[in-house]
Amino acid sequence: MSEEEQIEEMMARVRQLELKARRLVRESFSGEYLSSFRGQGLDFDDFREYQHGDEVRFIDWNVTARMNEPFVRKFREERELSVVMAVDVSGSADFGSKHLSKRELSAEIAAILGFSALQNGDQVGLLIFSEEPLMFIPPAKGTKHLLRMIREVLMAKPEKKGTSIEEACNFLIKSLKRKALVFMISDFHAENLDKPLGKLARKHETVALRVNDPLEEELSNAGRVVLIDPETGFETMVNTSNPNLRMAYKKLMKRQAEGAATVFKKHGIDTATLMTDHDTLPALHQLLKRRGRRRK
């Protein structure tokens, strides 16, 4: 397939994603998004006289001195969010044993959340990363802007195939000057999750969306097969007919998932697991319902 044909095929996939995401947002998603993600801070509105029960820390002492009676600062909730999708496009992101690869699933998630954000009047940005940050598109509004983001997720070709959540977190902490909502979209098959995610979550509201494939959770009984690590290129022959090997693999992957979940819980990071062989909406709905209940 020529490069021109590849680009045309990619654009067709982007258009399909746009249509699907718009329909899902219109039919069942935007209301939950609105109630789950509101503004990240408070904007100064006006002054008014102090009333019993007002917080002392909101007293403006300069105005109080001029007026000879206490005045407090009034605030309004800052409605507009800066939403950033941090999408993992490392070697493992291109794996998929069923309907979608993890990268395609990530692009679908970014499209759904992105159109929800735009409908809510929010700005949307993108960080693509693997072993290092590859591309940063600052938050902005507009459908063309979002479609470019989705296209970049699908087309990115990292030279270094590894995964570094740490490098992604450090980049976002340095680059985002005001508090933002960060969706970290990855399989989280990486080392050093604890401190980087903790630092990011302290500065920005962070949501971890773990993309996974069923074959990564449990090996099929397929006899002798060659397994290749897509991030390091390491190859090994394994006998998947061995029930002890399949059990050991299943336990290993379960520990890895539990380790990531422990990190998320420790730092108050909301999370959802999204599978390549399942509809994304139920898991996203559950995530937003949990957040909506807490806000109420």
TrEMBL record:
Domain DUF58: 46-257
InterPro entries per UniProt: DUF58, vWFA_dom_sf
Pfam families: DUF58 (PF01882)
Residue ranges that the Swiss-Prot or TrEMBL entry lists as coiled coil: none
Origin: domain of life: Bacteria
PANTHER family: BLL2464 PROTEIN (PTHR33608)
Designated name of the protein: DUF58 domain-containing protein
Organism: Luteolibacter algae
